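Q: I'm writing up a methods section and want to include an example of the input and output format. Could you take the sequence below and give the corresponding predicted structure tokens, formatted cleanly so I can copy it straight into the document?
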Amino acid sequence: MPATEDTAGSVPAPRAGGRAEARRAAQGRGGRGGGGTTDAAAGTTGGRAAARKSAKPKKNVKKIVAWSTAGVLVVIAGVGGAIYLKLNGNIKSFDADAIARNRPPEAKADADGNKPVNILLIGSDSRGKNNADLGGGEDGGARSDTTILLHVYADHKHAVGISIPRNAKVELPSCKLPNGKWTRGGNTDLFNSAFSLGGSDDGNPACTQNTVEKLTGIRVDHTLVIDFNGFAAMTSAVRGVDICLPKPIYEGDINPNLKKKGDLVLPQGKQTVEGQKALDYVRLRHGIGDGSDIGRMKRQQAFLGSLASKIKKDGMNPTTLLPLADAATKSLVVDPGLDSADKLLSFGLSLKNIDMHDLKFVTVPWRYRTQDQDLDIVQADAKKLWDTLKADQTIDGQNATGQQPDAPADTTSAAPPPPAQPTTPAAPAADTANSSIRVAVYNGTAFNGLAGKATEQLKAAKFVASTAGQAASTKYKTTTIEYGSGQKANAEKVAALFPGASLEPSGARGISVITGQDFAAAMGMAATAPAAGAPSAATPAVPAPPQPLPTTITNEARSADDDICANTSYGSGG
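A: Here is the clean output for your methods example:
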């Protein structure tokens, strides 16, 4: 990208003269040392000259106003064009030839022409250019400090960001080096080594994109890389982002090499940060929780949710986005599909209808390795997550393809009337202690929307419930409550809402409800059940639904509108 002497968030000092001089001259006040008549002097001039001025037809005033308005519009258009040219000059894209040839297929549009979009967001910790002052250290090259795969659903009202740990062991594909040669690929290494492959200060975003596509089987539509300078400038462009910390952070936490506590950097509690302090927050590992990358990813998710909420509140329009884009593009590297200001702004505006509650963040399923300090991705659970995204199903089980069916398709010309008053199980009085019990709800039948009804019933009883999607089988006759170790008493409270439900211990953590045909009957849905042995009307040409997500994903999901003080650390230590 073009070299620039501007630092993040800096504003050049106003030049002498310029617009201010022009305004003074236009108002008859002259410039520096200039003559001209002051307004006061003009007001004291009387006699015939004043009379002649007052006698001028009003239509001349209208002409002056019209020409002035036109002039203002021309100036605005000129400034806008300059901004666009500046943005275009800032943007740097990586080589399209470095993207793998053997890629996952593009997502198909639904019947309404809606398509999901997958965006790879990479935070670079490059120390090149001016980044060493912000990030500390003098090492060359670049590493991916943060990587999030953002899936924007086809309805463009839902989105989910999946954090990928930088120290997760993955298989690297063949990647193009800065010298034009391709690596052999196939070796296992840390995930962030893909970005540093080749040792360039700009990193290797194409290799990271290739790695994510190989890992997930999902085609990445766009990739954006932002470095320290760009991140700091973005937070200043939105006038700060709200954060919260469970304990104060000192210089020694930011830089453990100091070997001392040092001065206070970030106080405990809610605060608004920008620039260097915002960077300190999202890069913070030590002094909070167990000092792991897992806790840091939780804070990064909280920060991005808060940033998105701030931008949404200010208004998703060019007035809001242009300063943000100007700040970001000075340190931005994008894929060839986003290599112009028009493309970037159009892309940004396409996200304006995402509701903050429906912008979720999760971490790819992981586990600590026994042989070192790194992580392994739990492939079986991760596959369920990738399959859920490919099916454009939200993590709480909603269909987000742009078509939102509320009930199974009616395959008869005249459907039988529903029961006059379905018998709903009587809910016990809500227990305030229920608010600490998390429940994932799965649909164990062929009745569309049944899990959602059970979720509503649980929420009415003050449980923290979320719809997790379709169960592995649709043949559950009886509603089943599965519970992990130490959860039996809580599971019994849940079962009280589903008379006749069976309780079963499970190796998974938490509590899951799998709705059965008994619950469907209680909801008055038996009249719409498919005939015994008859194929479902939706069966032909429709892929099997993804396997239900594990509670380790659904229970840990964060919404952009969640309390910014909640779930910002991992492990012991605050």
